[in-house]
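Extended Data, panel c. Modelled sequence:
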Amino acid sequence: MQSWQMQTAKARFSEVVKHAADEGPQEITVHGRPVAVIISPELFDRLSGSQNSLVDFMRQSPLYGREDIAFERDRSLPRKVDF
């Protein structure tokens, strides 16, 4: 990952963004400490998991569409609660 000082990143912002798209994440530092990372939208989508909805995720389950799954229920009585 390439590292850029904040003032350099500000002055060459379009270059930093191009590097993020072509070469991968670009780290921004202030006084030598990392403060931000610029990444491509594709990498952001992959890392954030925003590509698929919950429904799509559930449909990818190996159990999707099976009707023979039996869920056992606890038949014990509920606990007593004092009001």
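Residues 74 and 80 are 16 Å apart (CA to CA). This feature is highlighted in the accompanying rendering.
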